[in-house]
Amino acid sequence: MRLAGTLVDLRPLRTSPVFRRLLFGRTVSTLGGFMTMVTVLYQVWDTTHSAVWSGAVGLAQALPMVGVGLFAGAWVDRVDRRRVYLASTVGQAVCSALLAVQGFTGHVPVALVLVLVAVQASFAAVSAPAAGVFVPRLLPKDQVAAGLALHQVTGQAMMLLGPAVAGVVLGWWGIGVCYLFDALSFGLSFYGAFGLPALPPQGEGARPGLHGVLDGLRFLTGHRVVRGALVTDLAATVLSMPVSLFPLVNTERFGGDPRTLGLFLSALAVGGVTATALSGAVTRRGRPGPVMLCASGTWGLALAGFGLTTSAWAGLAMLVLAGAADAVAVLSRSTIVQTLTPDALLGRVTAAELVVGQAGPHLGNLRAGVVAGWSSGATALVTGGLLCLAAVTTVGASTPELRGAAPAGPGGDEGVTGDPATLPVPEASPTPLPER
């Protein structure tokens, strides 16, 4: 019984056939997405042998997410989210099909490949806020955290499997087949979402354009618990993102062995998958605030420990711990955001969460590189981890609602009726954080 209570909670799969079908479709589509990511990097490098062009792939994926995301969030809070998701899924599938066509024909300028990647990322920036309402609308409140955990563990599993499958397919059949698999995978994603009920916003929709975006930002800055959750995530990513330091630390401490470098990245993923697979106790407890703070602090401490160790095995253990802590922190933060945000604002808040998730790691890797350039990779890791711990401690100390109490439901005890743009943002009331 204890083991069953520790494993990821499977109740959403049993109680909601619609959620089960949606999860299956999005899982296959995620596998295709990671295959395309690897294939684009391979194609660009094989064509140009330029690190600059390879770096441009990341910009082509990230910039549309940031630039389109907030306005897309305001738009989806005015319309039926199901229709938006289906339309954006078709758009992404068309982009993958065009990538497949150029992959089979060859001799296409790299700039055109990056344009297709950017257009596909723009469609993804629209679908993400729309999908942000699916779990809280499909599942009972006490199963929301479990549903998010299932999405997270399947996504992490595809992150491990996708690059490996892409490598095999690239070696046997070439880039066109990889892109084609991704295009076909969107068919299952479309099928999974087609059975969803209509999902218009509950309450009055968002105001158009910039006004709607500002209304969402006003909620974020005024709601202490949601704001604290996103600030904690920024602290963890901006102050202590370690990935850009791995090659330098591997050279400084472990002789530059490429096998060690690969294990660094795998260790984070292994920790994340393991923690999510064993998230049952966390999702059933219904107190995501304290869990998120503890997990974010553990992330910082584990990375500082990685910076201090000279043993490869001890370093890998620290990274497994960091990956596990990160997975728990992400799950808890998403639980807070999706259970405490009014449905009429959820698209915009999900979009803001997406922007934080895109911008934070990039800024964190930049910060790490600058500090390492002035000192060393180990110093950048240790200082970043300690700064993360200090920032998380500050957020927890200044936000007692996040430590153990929060609104009883989205928008606080008063509830949300009418246009959220005209309502005062309620302060958190001293009731326990609900389960996600």
Automatic annotation (TrEMBL):
Sorted keywords for this record are: Cell membrane, Membrane, Transmembrane, Transmembrane helix, Transport
Biased composition, Pro residues: where in the chain? 427-436
Localisation per UniProt entry? Cell inner membrane
**Which residue ranges are recorded for the region named Disordered?**
401-436
- Topology relative to the membrane, per the entry? Multi-pass membrane protein
Q: By its UniProt entry, which InterPro entries does this protein fall under? A: MFS_trans_sf, TM_effector
GO CC terms, sorted: plasma membrane
Annotated membrane-spanning segments are 23-45, 51-72, 148-173, 228-249, 261-282, 312-331
Q: Which domain of life is it from?
A: Bacteria
The record ties this protein, via Pfam families, to:
MFS_3 (PF05977)
Q: Which SUPFAM superfamilies match?
A: MFS general substrate transporter
Q: What is its main location?
A: membrane
Q: What is this protein called?
A: MFS transporter
